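Consider the tokenized backbone below.
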């Protein structure tokens, strides 16, 4: 089996453990492919070094060591390669990187034996048109697409259209369009609902709306969402909180279901609600009694 490994380059404190992991996989007949810069920085051997962009099409599975942010960037890199991803949590809060280091080697055994399951997640596609451009700039997001004001800016004014029907005008700090996967990220912090990952749905969550009756809205994933920036200064469109582009007045953002999907490897029997219990501390108060 050919296994691609991604890890943040600044996690040199993890280098020794990663070298042990590479050796363990090699002894079980797996070929490990890593970014050439990571291979050098972490002094990894024996590995095949490649550019990060080429890894998804050269391997059978990908293992991501880090937090949810690292996995999100890898998910966008995978694109239409449809390579399953295993997220291993090196941080604190991780809804996508749910496997811990203590569970790592049993998880590897499960994967190498083919006993794991795949959890398929939908992505969003965002098309941005502004300044009279006929050709949109296209982005894909696993978590969310966010139109947001700058740190010192005033509230912005947005028009929202769904499937060509005018929905409402908003004066707010911004708007979050999230997948079910992203419902436990920024949208949750802004008061949005937790959406079960298998649902074909998209959530629209206003950020600090001036009119309190503007509440989060859940629509089918096949819907076409149009957001037009009517006014605002220092407004930015962000993709998964990692990629950003400035928006000018009159800019139009069209969000639809992406043709790309992400397959997350689930090597354990832990279900979604157990993850919520663990990460959000649901029921903690009663368990301590």
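A designed sequence for it:
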């Amino acid at each position: 089996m050919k296994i691609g490994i991604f890890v943040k380059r600044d996690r040199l404190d993890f280098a020794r453990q990663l070298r042990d992991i590479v050796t363990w996989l090699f002894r079980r007949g797996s070929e490990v492919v890593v970014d050439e810069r990571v291979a050098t920085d972490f002094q990894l051997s024996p590995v095949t070094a490649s550019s990060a962009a080429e890894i998804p099409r050269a391997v059978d599975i990908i293992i991501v060591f880090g937090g949810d942010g690292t996995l999100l960037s890898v998910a966008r890199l995978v694109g239409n390669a449809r390579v399953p991803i295993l997220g291993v949590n090196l941080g604190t809060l991780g809804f996508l990187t749910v496997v811990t280091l203590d569970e790592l080697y049993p998880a590897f055994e499960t994967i190498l034996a083919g006993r794991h399951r795949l959890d398929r997640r939908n992505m969003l596609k965002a098309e941005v048109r502004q300044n009279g451009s006929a050709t949109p700039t296209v982005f894909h997001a696993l978590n969310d697409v966010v139109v947001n004001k700058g740190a010192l800016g005033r509230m912005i004014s947005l028009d929202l259209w769904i499937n060509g029907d005018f929905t409402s005008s908003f004066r707010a700090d911004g708007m979050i369009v999230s997948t079910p996967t992203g419902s436990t990220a920024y949208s949750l912090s802004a008061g949005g609902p937790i959406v079960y990952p298998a649902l074909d749905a998209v959530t629209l969550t206003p950020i600090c709306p001036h009119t309190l009756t503007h509440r989060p809205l859940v629509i089918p994933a096949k819907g076409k969402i149009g957001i037009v920036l009517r006014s605002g200064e220092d407004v930015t469109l962000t993709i998964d909180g990692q990629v950003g582009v400035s928006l000018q007045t009159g800019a139009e953002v069209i969000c639809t279901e992406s043709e790309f999907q992400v397959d997350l490897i689930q090597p354990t029997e832990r279900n979604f609600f157990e993850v919520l219990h663990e990460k959000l501390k649901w029921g903690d108060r009663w368990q301590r009694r």
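The domain at 123-259 is CATH 2.60.200.30 (Tumour Suppressor Smad4).
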